[in-house]
TrEMBL record:
This is Intraflagellar transport protein 88 homolog. The lineage of its organism: Eukaryota, Metazoa, Chordata, Craniata, Vertebrata. It is found in: Cell projection, Cilium, Flagellum; Cytoplasm, Cytoskeleton, Cilium basal body; Cytoplasm, Cytoskeleton, Microtubule organizing center, Centrosome, Centriole. Its main location: other. It comes from Astyanax mexicanus (Blind cave fish). Residues 726-744, 815-826 have a biased composition (Basic and acidic residues).
Length: 842
């Protein structure tokens, strides 16, 4: 405050006198100054300049004299040298060398206030660049090259590899043009090597991304051989990767080692990764000893999970038990470098801390930690399952050793999972009792493990059809963990087999509420709706499941079977699903036969023949398919080709006379009467009481003039007489049974049982309607026709239209079933997958 001077009210203005100046320095009146003008025109003004008294100033404080005005020393109010202003009462100017920009307190001489100088007009335009100069052309070309490299990288990031390659090639052409232009202008010394390196490296990278390996290797070779590029030797790693992809492992190892020699020990992480690649290449070549050398070095310098797992694989391949154990111990001791899960649990009621924990609970870092931990657990579980049977005399002892090691490591929670995998291994070995005993050990464990073990036990008992035990363990699993979808599915399965479909549907729906992606629950729910007759809801369930499992043959089959009931009006939807099904399982004969049946119902015989024939190729024992193919060839007048199908049917069902009669009929239709006669004789020897065969023998022998005609005619009469007797017995038996039912007597009731049994036996003996019964339940009826007259030709009877069956005019009539393939009913369709595989995932 002592340096601050406050002006009193009665003091004079501090700025008084700044506008007063010496008129001697007023240059505006020099044109009218006679003395000044004379000095300018004569030698009077050519006097030498005054020397400075003090350095740094033009005047030394001497009086400044001019031809106008008095000579008197001038000083400023602050003791500074006088300024070049003259005293003039008309134009005031402060006595200072610094004045406000454009500001003056007096506007006496017509000056205006223009601090920005706008009155002078706009500034002149900037001088335009001349792009025709060589330097400008070179700069523009360099910018284009850099832009093309950037566009190529962006296209690669977006997945458009072809565009990325095109941009990289164009950048290479532009860069070569740039080099030529510099050479022409004589500025070759200014060639940018970094730009050339970038162009070549990007081009090689894009070649490799587009699987143009030869071009990529050639481009990398150009970079590596140029000694002017610094650290180009590291690109030999990329070349080695290409050789590895080509499965040229020796050359890949060579280039990995060359790259390793050119990388200093300071880059430890890169050297470790290259050595890991060398170890993997040796494993692919089967040189496990060399691979072990590299992997052991990595585990001693910088251990990691993948290297430890590969090392266990190598020792397993050479069968070294002790090394397997030591490697497993090293594997479970590898630090993961992640934080404990406890830090994500709120420790107090501090709202700020809870908000922070909630924010980081599912961030990208925590997700990465979970993925790393899950990968480590996967490798440890796989290693344990791999080496357990090999490190001890039995796999059970090996599993026990692995469990003990895991319990003493940071992966304690994996011990229970290993025990469950031990039980699953027993299942794979068909040792169900040991599997059950192992799982029963978990009944007193914590709820999660207990629920998993009870779920597997329920599944095992369900497979053994011990539904009571399956239901018991399903309840146990549900009580331990109500949100376990596998337990709910098993419970639903036990209710499903008791035909309580409504309750089963409720359990499946609850499983879906707990886990919307549970495919087993959705599949079983669709089957339940199908059993309840709710076809629309079943169709909706399977369509949802198809959206999840696009290539599931079971789901496609269910969708096709649900559309088949509507195929009488529009079979195209069922055909479309069956076409998708055979794209997944192209060798399923039943699906091919069903497609043939649907096309046959539409009248498309050529497509039906194609699918029936494919079905026959994959399963040549389907009687329905054989029958349709034989009838098709007869319909198209190729009886010779039909013979092979009916002969195969004869081999499948040798006790069915109808197929042998069809073979003989085909010979007769094709005009080979001698072969037909031999076939009929052979049939007569096997089935001497078959009247149909005897009729054809009589007819053929008569036309061919053979002596055996009388013998066969006599046998035919005997057979027909026996047939009449049997028919009378059947008729009387039916009348007696009807009379017995009316009378209600016990004795006649016994005859009611006996007579039908007798009639069935006689029918089987006669070789008529019962001959069509096959092992698979196909029913073939035989219709006997009267013998034609002697003057009637063989083809006198008109051939019936072959739509669903072939009718032989003089032979048996075969009715083809409606379904060419065996129809899978709800009881037997996909029995092993119908209720889902509910074993917990490994």
């Amino acid at each position: 405050m002592e340096n601050i001077h406050l002006a009193a009210e009665d003091e004079d203005d501090l700025y008084t006198g700044y506008n007063d100046f010496n008129p001697t320095f007023d240059s505006e009146d020099l044109d009218n100054d006679v003395g000044f003008q004379q000095a300018v025109r004569t030698s009077h003004g050519r006097r030498p300049p005054m020397t400075a008294k003090f350095p740094g100033t033009a005047i030394g404080g001497r009086p400044i004299g001019t031809s106008f005005g008095s000579r008197m020393p001038m000083g400023s109010s602050m003791g500074r040298p006088a300024t070049g202003a003259v005293q003039d009462a008309g134009a005031a100017r402060p006595m200072t060398a610094v004045r406000a920009a454009g500001y003056s307190s007096s506007l006496a001489r017509g000056s205006t206030f223009d601090p920005l100088g706008q009155s002078k007009g706009p500034a002149p335009p900037l001088e335009a660049k001349n792009e025709d100069t060589p330097e400008e052309k070179i700069k523009i070309l360099e910018k284009k090259v850099n832009d093309l490299i950037e566009e190529s990288c962006m296209a690669q990031a977006n997945g458009d590899l072809q565009l990325a390659l095109e941009k990289a090639k164009e950048a290479g052409r532009k860069e070569r043009a740039l080099v030529r232009q510099r050479e022409q202008t004589g500025t070759a010394d200014h060639i940018t090597l970094d730009l050339t390196y970038s162009v070549l490296f990007n081009l090689a990278n894009q070649y490799a991304n587009n699987d143009m390996n030869t071009e990529a290797l050639n481009t990398y070779q150009v970079i590596v051989k140029n000694k002017m590029f610094n650290n180009a030797g590291r690109l030999k790693v990329n070349m080695a990767n290409i050789y590895f992809k080509q499965k040229n492992y020796p050359k890949a190892i060579k280039f990995y080692r060359m790259a390793l020699d050119q990388i200093s020990n300071a880059h430890t992480e890169m050297r470790i990764k290259i050595m890991q690649n060398i170890g993997v290449a040796f494993i692919r070549m089967g040189q496990y000893s060399d691979a072990i050398t590299s992997l052991e070095h990595i585990m001693s310098e910088s251990p990691n999970i993948k290297t430890g797992f590969n090392l266990i694989l190598c020792y397993y391949a050479i069968g070294d038990r002790e090394k397997m154990k030591k490697s497993f111990q090293k594997l479970i001791c590898v630090p993961l470098g992640i934080d404990e899960e406890d830090k994500y649990i709120p420790a107090n009621d501090d709202p700020h801390t809870n908000l922070v924990i909630e924010a980081i609970k599912n961030d990208q870092l925590h997700q990465m930690e979970r993925e790393r931990k899950a990968l480590a657990e996967k490798y440890i579980m796989t290693s344990a399952k791999l080496i357990a049977p090999a490190i001890e005399t039995s796999f059970a002892a090996g599993f026990d050793w692995c469990v003990d090691m895991v319990k003493s490591s940071q992966y304690v929670e994996l011990a229970n999972d290993l025990e469950i995998n031990k039980a699953i291994t027993y299942l794979r070995q068909k040792d169900f009792n040991q599997a059950v005993e192992t799982l029963k050990m978990f009944e007193k464990k914590d709820s999660r493990v207990k629920s998993a073990a009870a779920t597997n036990l329920s599944f095992l008992y369900f497979l053994e059809k011990d539904f009571d035990q399956a239901d018991r363990y399903a309840d146990l699993a549900m009580n331990a963990d109500r949100y376990n979808p596998a337990a709910l599915i098993n419970k639903g399965n036990t209710v499903f087999v008791k035909q309580d479909y409504e309750k089963a549907a409720e359990f499946y729906k609850e499983a879906l509420r707990n886990d919307s992606s549970c495919t087993e629950a959705l599949y079983n729910l669709g089957l339940t709706h199908k059993r309840l007759g709710r076809l629309e809801e079943a169709l909706d369930s399977f369509i949802k499941l198809h959206a999840i499992l696009r290539n599931s043959a079971q789901v496609m089959y269910q969708l096709a079977s649900l559309n088949i009931p509507y195929s009488s009006n529009d079979p195209h939807q069922a055909i479309e699903w069956l076409m998708q099904l055979i794209s997944v399982t192209p060798t399923d004969p039943w699906v091919l036969a069903k497609l043939g049946e649907l096309y046959d119902s539409e009248g498309d015989k050529s497509q039906a023949f194609q699918y029936y024939y494919e079905s026959f190729r994959y399963f040549p024992s389907n009687i329905s398919v054989i029958e349709w193919l034989g009838a098709y060839y007869i319909d198209t007048q190729f009886c010779e080709k039909a013979i092979q199908y009916f002969e195969r049917a004869t081999l499948i069902q040798p006790n069915q006379v109808v197929w042998q009669l069809m073979v003989a009929s085909c010979y007769r239709r094709s005009g080979n009467y001698q072969k037909a006669l031999e076939t009929y004789k052979d049939i007569h020897r096997k089935f001497p009481d078959n009247a149909e065969c005897l009729r054809f023998l009589v007819r053929l022998c008569t036309d061919m003039g053979l002596k055996e005609v009388q013998e066969y005619a006599t046998k035919l009469k005997k057979v027909e007489k026996m047939k009449e007797i049997r028919e009378q017995r059947v008729k009387s038996g039916r009348e007696n049974s009807a009379r017995g039912r009316r009378e209600g007597s016990a004795s006649s009731g016994e005859w009611t049982i006996l007579f039908p049994h007798l009639s069935v036996s006689n029918l089987q003996y006669s070789g008529q309607s019962s001959h069509g019964a096959s092992a698979k339940g196909e029913r073939l009826s035989v219709t006997l026709r009267s013998l034609p007259g002697s003057n009637e030709p063989y083809e006198a009877s008109s051939q019936g239209e072959i739509d669903a069956s072939y009718v032989d005019p003089l032979g048996p009539q075969i009715e083809r079933p409606k379904t060419a393939a065996k129809k899978r009913t709800d009881e037997d369709e996909f029995e092993d997958e119908e209720l889902g595989d509910d074993l917990l995932p490994e």
